[in-house]
Automatic annotation (TrEMBL):
InterPro entries: DIOX_N, IPNS-like_FE2OG_OXY, IPNS-like_sf, Iron_ascorbate_oxido_reductase, Oxoglu/Fe-dep_dioxygenase_dom. This is Fe2OG dioxygenase domain-containing protein. Keywords: Iron, Metal-binding, Oxidoreductase. Pfam families: 2OG-FeII_Oxy, DIOX_N. PROSITE patterns: FE2OG_OXY (PS51471). Pathway: Antibiotic biosynthesis. It comes from Funiculus sociatus GB2-A5. Belongs to the iron/ascorbate-dependent oxidoreductase family. Residues 175-281 form the Fe2OG dioxygenase domain.
Amino acid sequence: MTKTLVDIPIIDFEPFLSGDAEARQAVARQIYHACHEIGFMYLNPGIPATLINNLFAQTKLFFDLPFDVKNKLAWVDKFSNRGYVGVERERLNPDKPGDLKEAFNVGKEVNPEEISKQDKSSLIMNQWPVGEDKFRQTVLEFYQACAEAADKICQAFAIALELPESFFADKHEEQNYTLRLLHYPPLEQVVKPGQVRAGEHSDYGSFTLLFQDEVGGLEVRTADGEWIAAPYIPGTVVVNTGDLMQQWTNHEFCSTKHRVMVPSDDRVKRSRYSVAFFCHPNNDAEIACIESCQGENRPPLYPPISAGDYLLSRLQATY
């Protein structure tokens, strides 16, 4: 059974962005409680609404392209994490049929001319549709806006956990992030048993920013095992902490299962669009139990690991 009332905290992030030290502490305390109790919250991280609207418009135009055009941008290999993924190609819940969505992934844009020959051999490049310059420009502008917002959220997390303000930001400075555009097509046919738009899962990394439209369908599982709706709220972004942050904080911050269900009303005949910005630390950052998250009766639950090795282990387990 899914609740329809909003049980996820709505936090005004503006005082953190523009307020004094006391105001920032007050916001950080709210963020701590949200991350500790449910792992999800709504924030207004300062990304202009016009940019968000432009990105959604370009996202729709991209997914309206013929399948053959999009499929030319398909992932080169399963670990590249760049390019197009077709409907039902991904299965977030491995016990269920393929997800009823298509996606397009972008990472930090790099100029290959500025990379040494040795580095080029392992360089993973973004893939772009030919002739869609406005799409590329809008996506990269949005990526940078999200990266700047992520830096502020990193600061808030650090303050919430009684760490130096730059603790997380310093370990995310390489912008090892993935921007994922998502389209859930209208459904006219009967779906397979157990099939949903995005299967039950938790995110791998530090935290995620999620932008969604009014069609809805996102659900979050509480600690009691109840599924609650996480609807679109104008002027806000859904932010959730991921598995790596849960490990880093010794479960002080939780990583919560979530899913996107198939609507049971006329919305099933409408496209749903969303945009996820997945934040992951620098590959060489050491993920070791934070001092303020352990004690005499609370030893670290995990041995230290580099963020890069952690991500590779998760991808290998998934694929």
